[in-house]
Amino acid sequence: MTRREARAESREIREMRGPRLDQPVEVRRRLRRPQFEDDTFGRFAERFARFMGTARFLLYMTGFVAVWLLWNWLAPEDWEWDAYPFIFLTLILSLQASYAAPLILLAQNRQEDRDRVIAEGDRVANTRAHADMEFLAREMASLRLALGEVATRDYVRSELRSLLQEIDERDKRGAGEGDHQADGARHTPGP
After folding, report:
1. Residues whose CB is less than 8 angstroms from the CB of residue 42 and which lie 6 or more positions away in sequence, other chains included
2. Domain presence at residue 21
3. How far apart are CA 98 and CA 103, in angstroms?
4. CA 115, 116, 120, 121 torsion-angle sign
5. Over the stretch 151-190, which tens digit does the pLDDT of each residue have?
6. To bridge 49 with a disulfide, which of 81, 104, 141, 172 should be the other Cys (CB 3.0-4.6 Å)?
7. Where are the alpha helices (DSSP H) in the chain?
8. Domain tally for the chain?
9. Is residue 14 in some structural domain?
10. Is 30 a member of any domain?
11. Which range of residues forms the domain containing residue 52?
């Protein structure tokens, strides 16, 4: 039996048994689904949501509804396009809301993703800053310890003052002894 025959026979057996439950069913679509670039559609959703959150949009919608209501109240019955109780207007507003809600949610999801990336960057920057502050705190502590062993300006000045006082006292003592020696030399009889 050749390979082709074996394949054909196994295909026939599979077709008779039906699909296996442990394997996914292959679904072949005749029409391809339209492919949209997520980023392009997301940017559109953000612009749409941003526009819907403006006073201009509220004014436009208010004007649209006011014109609709006034036209259907004041126009002759032959010219009215939305009979009482404004079913068509309700349908249009519901349709607008049904499209607006998912677009706003999509825009919010994109904003949350951006916020998450920014928060992660902030967390990394904060971690680095915290590590730098700890390093600087350790360095400052080591400098304080090292400065504890180093003579300060006030300490050096006080030491110099005490040395000057000692020198002055020696000079005074030396000058006093020198005077006594000079006096003794004058009073001593010569040979």
Report:
1. 106, 107, 110
2. no
3. 9
4. negative
5. 778 888 999 999 999 999 999 888 776 555 555 555 455 4
6. 104
7. 3-17, 38-52, 55-74, 87-149, 153-187
8. 1
9. no
10. no
11. 37-148
